[in-house]
């Protein structure tokens, strides 16, 4: 920091205004809040800042970085708002209802102002029991709505804050019923979605309290924000790891039909949330996967992949396709048969994903292709002769690591015949020779050099294919040209014994004392 | 379409098999997509700046975990897989200037140089000193011969039985051709028992002289190593005596 040159001598800018100082403080706070902000961004919970019905009476603060003083003030206001609510709940007679709604509204505004609502202050002041009371049956809709909204935002933050909602759960679930007004039901679904997003424990509580059937029913209508919120809440509710909820969901009357309907016709926002439901159904429940594969869902997923450009939608749709291919051999053996139109459609949309700019799409599309390439010889031939291969070869040399690893799986799978019982799988020489001639070997040798165990393993396995399977004994020469020997020799001092043995074995077998002697 | 069917029954290598891979929804495989979901859902409401977006993308990419260097004894923490290659080249490619063998640490390289190219080392070995160091850093045990050290590595440190510190190197083709030429020239001198290379001719003589210096016992020990046809002290070149006199 020692800098003596006068030119760099720092002076506070004379023109510093209050705005500048405030901005500076905000930026500082932003750095420290950084971690907290990141955690809140990545949570599967969502704050409700604007009313479900587009309520315009909340002025959402543009600047979320509140200073310490402002935070302190907010906490104080919250405590007093809870105090107001307490007396409102206790009061009776004329005007009591209005008093309650006003107090709730004030608390709700305070809990919706910023990205980090004063939840701790609210809980400390005893908000939960009061809010539970406000949810009692027969309460006016406005009161139910405001109370549920407060609970939604209390549940949107830290784990212990979400857990505080336990006493309110039975009532929130009850207000999902078909007799409730839509905005109320939606707000309750939102709160429950946040609770489900917290973790397995709370999910199990909700499931045992019967949250699933009413939420499922809310997903049946054709449109509306309620359908979307219910779908999102369901995706949090069934995400496991226990597959029971997913299996239960697909069995609910009308759910499969609604899923197909929404995938076919709904706007992209709703289709996105429904696609996430399909993601969890297909990842967790074999029963649900079986049901889905026998329906039209694959065709609908392909259509969405072909027509949409919204990353938000493409991610769950692609993953659903991937899960259905991975989860049930029936998919590739019976539905995605080479020669069928739908199969060509699938390859086409996967190619579209490979061409996209988004890492997630490229990686997961490669994964899906690798599973199709793990099918029959005809599947391998189909992919081999498609537009996918040139793209994959390019990705193998230029893409980020996690994509390269998946691409490696595709290319390798194209070179070996389907596993038929015991013993070494046989090679598909035509594919191997062509891919090696087109330069894929260096990409695989790169993987051998990687610090990632799985990738290194793939690299060594492919190297073995080349050493063994290239005609005219060309394998060793080709591997040497790509510095393969050097890459394998690195493993002598590697801590992983399996990789060491693999690498040493190949070097000993193909590059022994006699290697190169005849030349 | 031709298929190559290989009849060799080598079952120890895990051959490539094409199988479907399925992942649980909470598998790390899906985490970048999951994070992207949450970000996209909130970014409209939260108005993320360009900078923040890039930062978060980077976090998603690197999984914020980093990776540990897998070379035995290193344990260095690298921020990403992409960094590993740079780290490896910087820290683990110590190469021997005499025979081009490469070692992952400078310590191992120096052990190799002593054992393979240093006649002083051989002299001490011949006199019964425990010169062969254990390769594991911090162990500090020394052994009188290569085999003894080898056994210790296998027994105590679980090295594979096939491990050879002084192994058959597989240098590049250019080097191989050069070595082949050398080998043909010195074939007559080759001692079958020892694999040790000592290439410099004059060092031979030096060693004999040194061994004489280090003990009071003046009777010539039966030193024989390398490919030189060492027939004891009678072949020490006169020039070797000169330095001694200068002292």
TrEMBL record, chain A:
Region of interest (Disordered), residue spans: 1-28
SMART domains named among the record's database cross-references: ARM
Keywords from the UniProt entry: Protein transport, Repeat, Transport
Domain of life: Eukaryota
Compositionally biased region (Basic and acidic residues): 1-14
PANTHER family: IMPORTIN ALPHA
Family: Belongs to the importin alpha family.
This protein's name: Importin subunit alpha
Biological source species: Hibiscus sabdariffa (roselle)
TrEMBL record, chain B:
Ranges of biased composition (kind: Basic and acidic residues): 187-198
Basic residues composition-biased segments: 173-186
InterPro entries cross-referenced by the UniProt entry: ZNF511, Znf_C2H2_type
Superkingdom: Eukaryota
Ranges of biased composition (kind: Polar residues): 213-224
Region (Disordered): 173-200, 213-247
Protein known as: C2H2-type domain-containing protein
Species per Swiss-Prot/TrEMBL record: Hibiscus sabdariffa
């Amino acid at each position: 920091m020692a800098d003596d040159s006068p030119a760099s001598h720092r002076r506070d800018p004379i023109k510093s205004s209050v705005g500048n100082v405030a901005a500076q403080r905000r930026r500082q706070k932003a750095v420290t809040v950084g971690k907290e902000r990141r955690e809140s961004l990545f949570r599967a919970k969502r704050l409700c800042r604007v009313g479900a019905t587009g309520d315009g009476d909340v002025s959402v603060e543009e600047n979320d970085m509140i200073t310490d003083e402002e935070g302190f003030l907010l906490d104080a206001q919250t405590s007093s708002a809870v105090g107001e609510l307490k007396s409102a709940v206790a009061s009776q007679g004329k005007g009591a209802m209005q008093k309650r709604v006003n107090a709730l509204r004030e608390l709700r505004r305070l809990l919706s102002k910023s990205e980090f609502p004063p939840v701790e202050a609210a809980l400390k002041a005893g908000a939960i029991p009061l809010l539970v009371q406000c949810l009692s049956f027969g309460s006016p809709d406005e009161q139910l709505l405001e109370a549920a909204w407060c609970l939604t935002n209390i549940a949107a933050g830290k784990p212990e804050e979400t857990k505080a909602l336990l006493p309110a759960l039975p009532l929130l679930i009850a207000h999902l019923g078909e007799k409730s007004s839509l905005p109320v039901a939606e707000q309750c679904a939102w709160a429950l979605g946040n609770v489900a997003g917290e973790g397995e424990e709370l999910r199990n509580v909700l499931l045992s309290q019967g949250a699933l059937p009413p939420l499922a029913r809310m997903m049946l209508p054709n449109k509306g924000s309620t359908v979307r919120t219910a779908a999102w809440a369901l995706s949090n509710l069934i995400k496991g790891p226990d597959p029971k909820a997913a299996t239960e969901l697909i069995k609910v009357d009308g759910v499969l039909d609604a899923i197909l309907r929404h995938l076919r016709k709904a706007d992209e926002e709703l289709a996105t949330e429904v696609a996430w439901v399909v993601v969890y159904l297909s990842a967790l429940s074999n029963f649900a996967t079986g049901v889905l594969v026998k329906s039209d869902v694959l065709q609908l997923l392909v259509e969405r992949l072909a027509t949409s450009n919204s990353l938000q939608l493409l991610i769950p749709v692609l993953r659903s396709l991937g899960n259905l291919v991975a989860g049930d051999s029936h998919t590739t053996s019976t539905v995605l048969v080479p020669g069928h139109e739908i199969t060509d459609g699938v390859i086409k949309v996967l190619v579209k994903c490979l061409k996209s700019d988004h890492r997630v799409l490229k990686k997961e599309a490669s994964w899906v292709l690798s599973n199709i390439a793990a099918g029959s010889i005809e599947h391998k031939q189909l992919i081999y002769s498609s537009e996918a291969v040139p793209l994959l070869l390019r990705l193998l040399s230029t893409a980020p690591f996690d994509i390269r690893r998946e691409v490696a799986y595709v290319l390798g799978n194209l070179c070996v015949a389907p596993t038929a019982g015991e013993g070494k799988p046989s090679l598909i020489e035509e594919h191997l020779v062509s891919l090696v001639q087109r330069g894929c070997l260096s990409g695989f040798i790169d993987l051998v050099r990687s610090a990632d165990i799985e990738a290194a393993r793939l690299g060594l396995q492919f190297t073995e294919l080349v050493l063994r399977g290239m005609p005219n004994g060309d394998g060793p020469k080709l591997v040497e040209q790509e510095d393969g020997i050097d890459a394998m020799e690195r493993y002598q001092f590697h801590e992983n014994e399996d990789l060491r043995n693999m690498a040493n074995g190949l070097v000993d077998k193909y590059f022994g004392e006699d290697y190169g002697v005849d030349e | 379409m031709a298929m190559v069917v290989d009849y060799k029954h080598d079952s120890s290598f895990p051959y490539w098999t094409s199988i479907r891979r399925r992942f649980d929804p909470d598998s790390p495989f899906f985490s970048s997509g999951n994070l992207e979901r949450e970000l996209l859902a909130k970014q409209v409401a939260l108005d993320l700046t360009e900078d923040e977006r890039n930062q978060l993308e980077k976090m998603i990419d690197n999984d914020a975990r980093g990776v540990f260097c897998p070379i035995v004894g290193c344990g260095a923490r690298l921020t990403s897989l992409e960094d590993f290659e740079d780290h490896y080249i910087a820290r683990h490619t110590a190469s021997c200037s005499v025979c081009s063998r490469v070692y992952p640490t400078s310590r191992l390289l120096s052990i190799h140089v002593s054992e393979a190219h240093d006649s002083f080392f051989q002299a001490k070995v011949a006199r019964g000193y425990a010169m062969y160091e254990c390769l594991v850093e911090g162990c500090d045990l020394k052994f009188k011969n290569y085999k003894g050290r080898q056994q210790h590595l296998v027994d105590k440190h679980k090295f594979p039985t096939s491990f050879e510190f002084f192994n058959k190197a597989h240098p590049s083709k250019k080097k191989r051709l050069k070595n082949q030429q050398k080998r043909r020239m010195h074939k007559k001198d080759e001692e079958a028992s020892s694999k040790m290379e000592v290439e410099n001719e004059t060092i031979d003589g030096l060693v004999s002289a040194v061994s004489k210096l280090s003990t009071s016992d003046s009777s010539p020990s039966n030193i024989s190593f390398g490919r030189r046809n060492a027939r004891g002290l009678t072949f020490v070149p006169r020039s070797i005596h000169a330095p001694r006199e200068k002292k």
